[in-house]
Specification:
Mean pLDDT: 83
Distance between the termini: 85 Å
Order of helices and strands: HH
Largest sheet: none
Helix content: 25-40%
Structural class: mainly alpha
Low-confidence stretches: none
Shape: elongated
Length: 81
Amino acid sequence: MARSNLKIYRGPAEKQAPTRPASNNQAATVTVELSEVLPLLADAVASRRTWLSDFEDDQITISADLYEVLLAYQYYRHPAA
């Protein structure tokens, strides 16, 4: 009787999370599009991820027009008391 060589299929290999390459610069920055970051931040806020508090005091740089839109949104989103 011929012996069959069966293998267990465990699915596709796990994808590793993307990482930023190591650099010698201590104050390294990464420029990304808002469309890449916003859904992740929105999900983290909605899920109340505790790691967000690690970055509460970090400063970010945004364009002046986005800042103006955010200020207007902040003003108009709350009904007058």
